[in-house]
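Dear colleague,

Following up on Tuesday's group meeting, I ran the structure prediction for the three-component complex that the binding team flagged. I've pasted the input sequences exactly as they went in, so you can double-check that nothing got truncated or mislabelled along the way. The structure tokens for the whole assembly follow below. Feel free to forward this to whoever is handling the docking comparison.

Inputs:
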Amino acid sequence: MIEAQLLNGVALGSILALVALGLTIIFGLLGFVNFAHGALFMIGAYAGWVVYTQTNSFLLGIATAIVFTFVVGLVIERVLIRFYYKRPPEDQILVTFGLGIVLVESVRGIFGGKTQLVSTPNWGAGAVQILDLIYPAYRLQVVGIVALTLLVMWLILFKTRIGLIVRAGIDDALIVNILGINVNRTFMLVFALGAAVAGLSGIIDAPILAVYPDMGTGVLVQSFVVVVIGGVGSFWGAILGGLVAGEIVSITTAFAPDFGQVMLYVAMALVLIMRPQGLLGVEGRT
Amino acid sequence: MSAILEARKLTKAFGGLVAVNEVSLEIEPGRITAIIGPNGAGKTTLFKMLAGEIPPTSGEIYFKGKRITGLDATSSCQLGIGKSHQVTQIFPSLTVAENVMIPALAARRGSFKLDIFSSIPRVDGLATLVERTLTAVGLMERANFRAEDLAYGEKRRLEIGIALATQPELLLLDEPAAGMSPSETADLVALVKELRNSLTIVIVEHDMDVVFGLADEIMVLQDGVTIAFGRPEDIRADRRVREAYLGGLESV
Amino acid sequence: MRLGPVGDRSGWWVEAAIAVFLVVFPTVMAALGAGPDLATRILILGLFGLGVDLIFGFTGLLSFGQAAFFGSGGFITGYLLIHNIVNNSLGALAIGTIGAAIFGVVIGELALRQTGVYFAMLTLAFGELFYFLDLSPLRNYTGSENGMPGVPKPTVPLGFTTLDFTSNLGTYVFVAILYFFGFVIARRIVRSPFGAVLRAILENPERAAAVGHDVRRYKLVVFTIAAAYAGLAGGLLGMFQGYMPYEALSIDQSGEIIVMTVIGGPGTLIGPLVGAGIWTYLRQELQNIDVIASIWKLILGLVFILLVTGFRRGIVGGVVTLVERRKRGVPR
């Protein structure tokens, strides 16, 4: 039976890893704390759901979620976020928290507060048998989708010129600027990228979570947990953190169901107290 | 006379970079000691270790005979080591008087006091200390101005005032004359000369007029190592010192 | 030289003004078409906000987990009263407040090992920890999503008689008295030498430490005090509603009190009260108007963003600045 829990942990963890990846991209690369992350997750879910119900194509829904949230990220960055890079972290937290409220309430105003169930796409229906386990097919596919996304992200960040600029721009924006590269535009793209990943995880999660305006709140905190455990600013940290978090919840739920969620926050607190840079984070990047 | 401050083989390494390499020094009470050296010599890092802002990688520090190695800045300050910073570190929205009152509160009340129902006028000796400090640094007329509204030179004086209000026995001044005009620098020199009657002073400076005008003894650092230590006349004549300062130009 | 409280030139008239305000508040609310109930709710949030202002407005600690103390105090107090463990409302409140304060010390000790973003995230995590503890493991005590019904209205048995605050107006009076004491205490703290150090920590924590203050300890104490305020307010909430909701422990609750404090004006003590007033009144009143019903929160969110971006002093802070500018000759 332990295999079931471990597998469940991987499935859960991969979703968490994807959600956290968007946050850690922005937090780690821009040094910017985005408390609107959950709201962007929610926006992706809604955007994808709308298209999905209209066209019956989940893939189109996914594509819409990515593009729409990317654009929203661009707009937010240009209109608000870019004035905050130099401001103290408390201000960044406050303004993105307020932004989150605005986004959530806007969606609530347009769609109402009703929970919308999102049916699993056709290709994800049914269950799959692994060893002696029956497991929902979609959840396994999510693991695959997440893995694919992580691969794409990794390629972008580590194998392209843009990625190099992004990583260099974080280290020393002044030099990059002097070299004639537009750092502002890089920051904007990074933020939009982080938002897009959040939006993607939103639509991916929609069949599992259902869609409602406040769906992002819990996700926001969970993302922080993952980022903290895995390490801020670490790409692999988000993945490792996600998997660790997923396993913690899954295994705890198996033995002491009441404490499943609680353990997650205990783990986060422990990490923050004993090893604040997380499992794979770089020390001093606080 | 035993030394008020003694450092033995102080070393600070940041990963592979050794900023301060086994520097030792002994400061006699009542003296003015200057630490000079080219940029990157490790002067500020040394100062930070002495004030408890960063812990040494190795080595020991003794203050009035007591081992204080690794003690944090708060404790160092309570023991009697005060420091003014190279980059001005004031309390911007508070008035000048309040800026000086904050360290005075620590000097008169210790590192912590749960006096949540008490009132400020009731703190013993606070007003006197604040007045004396403001007078000493010449900021009495600006007492009710917001600190962030002061002119640069005034802010530097406030910076020193904040350090003074902690009632130190040993005062570390990190480039106090930075950015000051000649007349402001002259005022600074006069201030330090007055202070020496009641405290021991160690000063890091680039301005050689200030250094040679004030110092009883001078320590020269280069690349984290002491290359010379002695009276001003001797330092002026020292060949290694001249090379340290001029060598860079010639080799370019 | 005469030294006074840091950043504060006001005198006893502030406490007097608050007392007068508390007396006329229900009448004002009635004139606006609302009963004393709305006034009571605003005061409870204002009391909660006093603590938040102490840690955020005066010390610069942004905690997203204050609901943990608000809810804990509420559930402890409510539980004691419902199960007749304590008959005296004040006694139950005291225990609930102390319980919240103890949690404050524990969480503060852990969370304050970090600063800035990590501190905020830690408080968020602890807040959620309490939230989920309430929902699952402790559900037999607290009712989980159903909350805890049956919290009695305030009564204070004095032996020879019992003070009865069970009517709507009575409850208001009970809450108002406690708010007044809370306010006076907060004012004393802020104007004390301790309070001066808090403001120094807000301005420049490194320098405050460098000049000899044990910054960690000051932060821990004020954090505990804020937890106590939150716990007291939570206890009053249960009594006021006759029911203790699980939402009192949620992130939303933690976030709301921050928004109220920022809109009202951090560092003013009455800021949170003003913010709570605006938030609560708008929520109650605008829900009746069809079109605006769902967007009152949206509008407040936008106002919040504007204030954070350009005007950090909030409404009360803005008023204070205007008044001070009128006084010529004094540079401050």
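Chain C touches chain A through 40 residues (CB under 8 Å).

Cheers,
M.
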